[in-house]
Amino acid sequence: MLDLTGKKALVTGIANNRSIAWGIAQQLHKAGANIGITYLPDEKGKMEKKVAELVEPLNPSLFLPCNVQNEEQVKSTFETIHQKWGNLDILIHCLAFANKDDLSGDFSQTSRTGFQTALDVSTYSLIQLAGAAKPLMTQGGSVVTLSYLGAIRAIPNYNVMGVAKAGLEASVRYLAAELGPSQIRVNAISAGPIRTLASSAVGGILDMIHHVEKVAPLRRTVTQIEVGNTAAFLCSDLASGITGQVLYVDAGYEIMGM
């Protein structure tokens, strides 16, 4: 029943084969979506080569550089989508970053620039990309972003990223309210801890994963593919009545008191 055939999906945030964005891209492709990929460019082109090789089996029809802190690249990305695809049905936002120094120690010592960077890349970018996608989602659409429990609970070593994710979840609600009349749905997936390039910057990530495996109702953590399955569901007609929500895909850990 889950069929995305003919849907055009832009996936951001793939860094390597451990990325949650990679799990999502695979499941969207499996459901029949036409995939477009953005990557974070670097001077030596290493990221472009790495991501291109990884996503080759998905046969993406768009492969574009997009640094969300570069307004011209964002503008160029969506101009290319308009020129090559005409419209857009699905936007997957898997972007987050904070300076490592701001992910440890006392939260009150977060630097101003560190705070601005974390909120810019991790929170504002959703608003930015959704705004750019809005005029292209002429037949309605689905926007999905990734959050974490640190948005609503104090998690050791998560610090400024918790504030960024809280802002992200609030942005989901405001965007859902704005875009709803255009039949564009906006939701977040709050995934359990998964060992990725991004999470490796969080001190004690392996301890967090082992703790979830002991405490979560399912006695395990989740996989990138499980998150990908939920994203594919949210992007499909099966989720046509769901918007402005944060869905927990964390083996049930969020419900536990101790």
UniProtKB/TrEMBL annotation:
Residues annotated as catalytic: 148 (proton acceptor), 158 (proton acceptor)
Pfam families on file: adh_short_C2
GO terms of biological process kind: fatty acid biosynthetic process
Keyword Oxidoreductase annotated: yes
UniProt-annotated binding residues for substrate: 98
Swiss-Prot/TrEMBL catalytic activity: a 2,3-saturated acyl-[ACP] + NAD(+) = a (2E)-enoyl-[ACP] + NADH + H(+)
Transit peptide in keyword set: no
UniProt EC number: 1.3.1.9
CDD domains: ENR_SDR (cd05372)
Keywords for the protein's UniProt record, in alphabetical order: Fatty acid biosynthesis, Fatty acid metabolism, Lipid biosynthesis, Lipid metabolism, NAD, Oxidoreductase
GO MF: enoyl-[acyl-carrier-protein] reductase (NADH) activity
Positions contributing to NAD(+) binding: 13, 19-20, 95, 165, 194-198
Pathway where this protein functions: Lipid metabolism; fatty acid biosynthesis
Domain of life: Bacteria
Family that this chain belongs to: Belongs to the short-chain dehydrogenases/reductases (SDR) family. FabI subfamily.
Protein name per UniProt: Enoyl-[acyl-carrier-protein] reductase [NADH]
UniProt source species: Chlorogloeopsis fritschii PCC 6912
Lineage: Bacteria, Bacillati, Cyanobacteriota, Cyanophyceae, Nostocales
